[in-house]
Amino acid sequence: MICHQITDLKKNRAPLVSAEIARPVPGVKDVLIRVTACGVCHTELDEIEGRTPPPAFPVIPGHQVVGRVVETGALAERFRLGDRVGVAWIHSACGRCPHCLAGAENLCAEFKATGRDVDGGYAQFTKVPEAFAYRIPDLFTDAEAAPLLCAGAIGLRSLRLAGLRDGQNLGLTGFGASGHLVLKTVRYAHPDTEVFVFARSGLEREFARHLGAVWCGDITEASPEKLHAIIDTTPAWKPVVAALGNLAPGGRLVINAIRKESGDQSELLNIDYPHHLWMEKEIKSVANVTRRDVREFLELAAAIPLRPEVQEYALEEANRALIDLKERRIKGAKVLRID
Ligand SMILES: [Zn+2]
Ligand SMILES: [Zn+2]
To answer: How far, in Å, are 235, 241, 245, 273, 277 from residue 270 at the CA level?
Structure first.
């Protein structure tokens, strides 16, 4: 399923086009993967609508890829044919710059994203440098493993950046693929932490309550108590302003979104310094993921064990999955099944 150009999903309901192309040829240190499942991420909407545009077209989107190794490059030796592997958002980084050397390869200037800067997993085959592929723990099905690779890994990174200690309460603004995995992770990693969920749709709030949130309200509601940290996974600005109002003194808002939509940017003018920012409140963004985030989240998810709630679509239904995501028909994570 190929993206040929930037488009407005409100007008174009079928942004991706199905096509037959040649099977990719792995480079010397690459593995070629026969894809069986690929998660659908909000970032794909940002790519297709041009908020984080692919540098060149056409491109195959998709960065939560699970499949089997079917070919290895001449110098690739980490995996054997038939091994089940995953590919995440980080397709490669330079490995030499100060960020890479300090373990922050997510900040590398040469960071390449799967499905944006190079072809991704909305396809039968994809290739990746072997150093950027992950073994998938046995207990997950291919479809369950897919959302762990982005929604889960970036959720873990957000949680780390939130600096939360067990027993401190946490807010989640938006409750899609990443939010629901953060909630499941928190219940294991911080058993005494209470989770408050802010979500626009009743379906999402009901889902959050079912997974153990102590309180659920609309995006702009005031929480019954002030929160030590809030993780925002919405595409908008209004929830950011509301979240700042719900933070406790010294609290931190972590924005987990590669780009925000600009439609309601004027909401930022409603920031009232004493109410929203004073008392040492902080705002921090989350950028990309490192291989360590992905590896550690896969291990953690297997230990919990944490099973993502997935909704499956056939590869040919990728456009419908994207529109459902855009229109927030969400329960858990969306995954394309590739036979
Ligand atoms: Zn993603
Ligand atoms: Zn680098």
So the answer is: 18, 7, 11, 9, 12
